[in-house]
Design a protein that fits this description.
This is FAD-dependent monooxygenase. This protein is of the alpha/beta class. The chain has ten helices and 19 strands.
Length: 357
């Protein structure tokens, strides 16, 4: 696509989460302005901490966000595994995917609160390109454009539509009738203070206390410590709210210092079932494509979900700025990213084995 053509592209992004705004930033870096449509009435991210690996941090620098990210991100120099009783097992950093390690320049992964990461990604976007309270309803693709209709009655036309609207994306149905798959595991996560966790966590590293399929994970974020309990369950309910007594039953065999951390949590607390999608064979039509969880929702065992969405954003921005047509660009993007994310999706499903070294 010639430079003058790419600049004039009308790009619509469905979904104002990490993947959607990363795509808007990556496109803006290529002088392509995209409109982001988000169904929520206010922007925000649920969850707690998230790991950004070195390749992602380099993209932030390329996009002019390195400094603002470093103000919020905390280096994670080690990933250490302990037994439920606190006995050291291993530092698994060197045994995991290459993107989970320090790079050759010594840059380690960094953890950041999801809400802070969203703030970083939104910061360079002009508010006129952000459209809240726009829940996607339907779309019609023609040879020359895509017409998108929202539940509030708004209708827009675009040269290309990027669906970054998560694991429940109804745009994915263009390519597959699959449904989200339950992993057999739940996650309870929150932010605790550094003071409360000072005897059981590390200031610049991730610690995992593991017993069988159960994990208690802590990693530093600005203003506190990400705290996550992952455990097997037959309950497929997407979200429940549980009490302290119920949460205690999940870690009864853990060391007293770890069990005591539950006293610092505000109850009831969200208990989320972990779902994912299987890889699919195609993401794109001539003018519509999927990105992030809409394309390749994966389990959190490798900390790769958001990193993969951000890498998608970089790939699609490069493709739309380089290729002669939108169709060629979407094919280049898919050819680059789908094999990579398929491998990560498959590996992330080895939930019980992720930290068995």
């Amino acid at each position: 696509m010639e430079q003058t053509q790419s600049k004039s592209l009308n790009v619509v992004i469905i979904g104002g989460g990490i993947g959607g705004f990363a795509t808007a930033v990556a496109l803006q870096n290529k002088d392509i302005q995209a409109h982001v449509y988000e169904q929520a009435k206010a922007l925000g991210e649920i969850g707690a901490g998230i790991i950004m690996h070195p390749p992602t941090q380099y993209l932030f620098k390329e996009w002019g966000l390195g400094e603002v990210f470093n103000e919020r991100g905390i280096p994670n120099k080690t990933i250490e595994v302990y037994t439920a009783q606190g006995e050291f097992v291993t530092n698994v950093t060197d045994d995991m995917l290459s993107s989970l390690k320090k790079d050759q320049a010594g840059l380690p992964p960094a953890s950041i609160h999801r809400a802070h990461l969203l703030d970083v990604l939104i910061s360079p976007i002009d508010p006129e390109y952000i459209h809240l309270d726009h829940k996607f309803e339907s779309l019609v693709e023609t040879a020359d454009y895509v017409e998108v209709t929202f539940e509030n009655g708004a209708v827009v036309q675009a040269d290309v539509v990027i669906a970054a609207n998560g694991i429940h994306s109804n745009i994915r149905k263009l390519f597959s009738n699959d449904e989200p798959l339950y992993s057999g595991n739940h996650s309870v996560r929150t932010i605790l203070s550094r003071e409360v966790t000072k005897e059981t966590a590390k200031e610049e590293g991730t610690v995992i206390y593991k017993e069988g399929a159960k994990m208690l994970l802590m990693q530093p974020v600005a203003g506190g410590m990400h705290f996550d309990i992952l455990y097997p369950s037959e309950d497929t309910t997407w979200v429940n709210y549980i009490t302290k007594e119920e949460l205690l039953t999940k870690i009864t065999s853990y060391d007293e210092k770890l069990v005591k951390l539950l006293d610092a949590i505000e109850y009831p607390i969200a208990d989320r079932a972990l779902y994912h999608r299987q890889p699919i064979l195609r993401w794109s039509t001539k003018r519509i494509t999927l990105l992030g969880d809409a394309a390749h929702s994966m389990l959190p065992t490798l900390g790769q979900g958001a990193n993969s969405a951000i890498a998608d954003a970089d790939a699609i921005a490069r493709a739309l700025s380089e290729c002669a047509t939108v169709e060629e660009a979407l094919q280049q993007y898919e050819n680059e990213r789908r094999p990579v994310t398929t491998a990560i999706q498959n590996e992330s499903q080895q939930f019980d084995k992720a930290f068995d070294k």
